[in-house]
Amino acid sequence: MAVREAAVIVECANKSYGQQNVLNDLDLTVEKGTIYGLLGPSGCGKTTLLSCIVGRRSLDSGNVWVLGGKPGEKGSGVPGPRVGYMPQDIALVGEFTVRDAVYYFGRIYGMEHKKMTERFEFLSSLLDLPSGNRLIKNCSGGQQRRVSLAAALVHDPELLILDEPTVGLDPVLREQIWKFLTDVAQQGTTVIITTHYIDETKQAHKIGLLRDGQLLAEDSPDEILRKFECNTLEEAFLKLALAQYEIPQRRPPPTVSPDVIPESRQIESVYESRETFNAVNGSTDVLTKKEKSIRSRNLSRSRYKAVFIKCIQQFCRHPGGLIFSILFPIIEVVAFFLAVGHDPRDLQIAVVNEEAVFSPFGLDICRRSDLQTTKLLKDGTCELYMLGCWFLEEMENKELVQTVYNSTEEAKSAVATGKLYAALHFAQNFSEALGLRVAEGEVADRTLAESNIRVWLDMTNHQISYFIKQQLHKAYESFTKRVMRACDRPENIIQIPVNFHDPIYGKKEPEMVGYMAPGILITIIFFLPSVVTSTLMIGDRLEGVWERSAVAGVRPREMLNVHIALQSVVIVVQTIEMMVLAFAGYGIPSRGSNITCGILLFLQGLSGMCYGFLLSVYCTSHTMAFFVATGSFYPMILLCGILWPLEGMSGGLRYFALALPFTIPSNSLRDMFEKGASITDSTVYNGFLVTFLWIFITLGLILLRLKYKKT
Ligand SMILES: Nc1ncnc2c1ncn2[C@@H]1O[C@H](COP(=O)(O)OP(=O)(O)OP(=O)(O)O)[C@@H](O)[C@H]1O
């Protein structure tokens, strides 16, 4: 018997998922230039076997040889252009048009545009494809399946692996596809096809009946029918299934020759050997080392081009993604500057002014223009009257608005019921007692008590109550200065003896917004790319696009590089948008170099993108990525120091907070904004170092994962 070449040999293959044994000492041989129909019930391991053949999964034990090499080995061409793979899922980008989907794979295989167009026209008419401009997501299930098949056929590969290509197609089209497969097999292409329509495999040269991870039979359809004395393959399959455990298991020793079918499994071939189609499709065996290297470089360039065009198409045809990437930074920065960090305004305070109530004009006395609150006497003393009115004036200048109450009980009850934030009380003798207290120093307890302004606060609202306290202190300061001036005394005499000079950095009256802005800008630029990246990548993976591209030969590194390049452009746009808004729109100071600030923001965006990539390779679903993202972003924001200073955290936690991606960089950016610090200052270069460290660590973890886990 003649020794014939084999396209695929699987030997003693074992594969389990946890406790589940999916392939069980499986042997399979596919001759070059034949159609092999792989049959079996759902879940019997067909897809698993195919993914081991195309090099996307590895066996636990056993051997696979494909087109003379081991899948995944350097130079084997598998995964790569020698194989055309149609997975069970559609595995095409929804934003592709029908033409884009086919061209994407054509580009990956390095096909010229003219050749791709010819093939597309041919496959369009063969498979009755929808219009080339229709988006995949708008095609019906059957149409998507046909486009998916066209994408596997575009480069006329040596080996076609088709996982249920005819599901959901009408009988005429199924017949047409089988006729096409028979034709290409005649020209030398090897086809492995799985199907649930057992009957259609009559047209295959050989069929393998797979059940419980074992091949129950592997022969030509006619031979199977003859051996089992059945009229239909379905009948034969049933007989075999029933007899499965009664047939003694065949176990030949492992072969070491990948190109030759073991003698025991040779069958007569009815076809001539395969003709090569062109340089892309042919084997690389005849090429010199230099030619191989040039070819490999050209192919890599085509793959970059294909992935680049795919990402652009995906991005441009995804309005949500565009809005998220370009408009969200603007919306978030504007929302922050409009809403956060500004002083509260028009805070209502309950005021009980007994001094005014018992005056001849009642509460109206404070509004009288002829009210004389101070009177400088000849002996140099100063008479004080209705000073509460002055205090209230100063208080209103500080955004605290008085609401008049008649008694302290009523005022306190208004605070207790949440109507107002604070209650304030002036005693009937307030001015007189204050005068005595200032003039004599030592006064009776009663006088001392009457000279006090009594305040009751609702301290549950931390920001508001501290703001009111601060404003009352300021009102007191300006009130006493005014009184002292009116009494011809030095205005600072009754101030607290602490003098605040002009600050070394920052404004005398800084707003919280200036402190928070650097941290907020960094969190936004970190957060957006990480969400976009993880969503796109997980989407690609779940839809099978990543997997399918990998079988076509695209390396994870190539996907990563293209994504980094494209996201970098988006991050540059986001950085510019945010800086223009912060500096020009909202007057955030920029005392340091704008370029250094921009570079730090850009690098933070890159770090966020790498973080998103990390989520996408370690999380198996959008939901899991969402949980991890939310679970990690909150601590990062809470601990980065923009909400509460690190000095308020315990020692261990503080060190942990410092190691987070935007704690130190936020300080660096603030120092550049407010103090004009430069890259030579440790506060700034530390921010850059932390950012680089995060980028390298996340990239390392990504590459590690991609290296050791293919799917
Ligand atoms: N990644 C995985 N992790 C765990 N179990 C898996 C995994 N992939 C497949 N399996 C299990 O392995 C078995 C074989 O799956 P496989 O997809 O290979 O079957 P199949 O023959 O292709 O089925 P179908 O005809 O329904 O597509 C199934 O029971 C499936 O649940």
TrEMBL record:
The keyword ATP-binding is annotated on this UniProt entry: yes
Main subcellular location: membrane
Membrane topology: Multi-pass membrane protein
Range of residues in the leader sequence: none
InterPro entries per record: AAA+_ATPase (IPR003593), ABC2_TM (IPR013525), ABC_transporter-like_ATP-bd (IPR003439), ABC_transporter-like_CS (IPR017871), P-loop_NTPase (IPR027417)
Pfam families per UniProt: ABC2_membrane_3, ABC_tran
Positions of the ABC transporter domain: 3-237
TM segment ranges: 515-538, 564-586, 598-618, 624-646, 684-704
GO cellular component: membrane
GO molecular function: ABC-type transporter activity; ATP binding; ATP hydrolysis activity
Keyword Membrane in annotation: yes
Subcellular location: Membrane
SMART domains recorded: AAA (SM00382)
SUPFAM superfamilies: P-loop containing nucleoside triphosphate hydrolases
Keyword terms, alphabetized: ATP-binding, Membrane, Nucleotide-binding, Transmembrane, Transmembrane helix
Name of the molecule in the record: ABC transporter domain-containing protein
